[in-house]
Amino acid sequence: MKCMIASLALALSALPAMADDVAGDFDYYVLALSWSPSWCSQTGDERGAEQCAVGRKIDFVVHGLWPQYERGWPENCRTDERDPSRRESQAMADIMGSGGLAWYQWQKHGRCTGLSAAGYYGTMRDAADLIAIPEVFVDLARDISLPPAVAEEAFIEANPSLGRDGVTVTCWGEALQEVRICLTRDLEPRDCAPDVRPDCTRDRILMEKVR
Question: What are the boundaries of the signal sequence (predicted)?
Answer without folding.
Answer: 1-19
